[in-house]
Design a protein that fits this description.
Layout lengths: L10 H7 L11 H21 L3 H17 L4 H15 L15
């Protein structure tokens, strides 16, 4: 079966322990980033089908890898999240913007 997708770091060892034959390669920087973006979409779709701690944990794992890739600071990310929530609110009330009139 062909995959061409980013896998967790220990999957190769797991496949070896199961006696599986497989092929992998080390991603280039551009390929790695593109596959991280694809992986977060994949994990989000899995969460949509199974909203659970397990699946949202996978999303957090990919987001953390993106954070590290871009050398972002976790404390600054949290501060930005809180600042934006304080100014613009969160996404907890389910409000859908339908239209804004042009002036």
């Amino acid at each position: 079966m062909k995959y061409n997708k980013l896998i967790r770091d220990n999957i190769s060892d797991i496949l070896i322990s199961k006696g599986k034959k497989f092929k992998t390669h080390k991603a280039t920087q551009d390929e790695y980033l593109e596959h991280l973006y694809l992986k977060v979409i994949e994990e989000l779709m899995e969460f949509r089908n199974d909203p659970s701690e397990k699946e949202i944990g996978d999303i957090y794992e990919v987001l953390q890898a993106i954070e590290i890739y871009h050398n972002l600071n976790k404390d600054e990310i949290k501060a930005e999240q809180i600042l934006k929530r304080n100014i613009r609110g969160g996404f907890y009330n389910g409000i859908i913007l339908e239209e804004v009139e042009d002036e």
